[in-house]
Amino acid sequence: MDELKSSGKSFGISKWEVWRAWEKVRANKGAPGVDGCSIEEFEKDLKGNLYKIWNRMSSGSYFPPPVRAVEIPKLHGGGTRILGVPTVADRIAQTVVAARLEQVVEPKFHPDSYGYRPGRSALDAVGRCRERCYKTDWVVDLDIQKFFDSVPWTLWVKAVEANQRRSTPASHDVRPHASEVSCPAVAPARCGRVGRTVAVEGPVAGGQRARGAPDR
Fold first, then answer.
1. Range list of β-strands (E), the chain
2. Tens of pLDDT, residues 75-97
3. Nearest to 161, CA basis, from 89, 105, 95, 86
4. What is the pTM of this model?
5. 3-state secondary structure 77-108
């Protein structure tokens, strides 16, 4: 991991980007995907596993593996919903892409949007509601039934493509599979399980380089 930039590669993805994505995925924990590889098992060959992700993404040969489907009960009853659990490696790749896209799409969000946004939480939304309860005596509560079953995915993909072209320098695009992106603007059905609200540990702690981190 001594090479920080993707010299000679098709896409400009640094190894530091992959390392920071790994730190976030590890902090979020999560269950194994279809390959059965846990966070702990992935870490046993951390340097090799991260290199594979970086090499495939920067060369344009990365393809996401299948997602493990898990049924979870809906809140307040009403059946179950399918939760997609990607592999650890795929979660890292998604986080690399999300970080690039987030720089572009985050400023476009409505100030009252709180879901899956950095530095915001449900408690912030509740706090805003409390403020407005002193000003008005009415509230609108609504939900879109089976949103991800009916959303027009062709439009969704176009939105992702339009923003990813602006998220990287010319000739260094990161072109993710649209269904693999996990970010506030493009959060398809299988992306809700990659939270990004946990603080990311820096690659250097206490003056020592973290294990497996790319060399300076």
1. 68-73, 80-85, 204-205, 208-209
2. 777 788 888 999 999 999 999 99
3. 105
4. 0.67
5. CCCEEEEEECCHHHHHHHHHHHHHHHHHHHHH
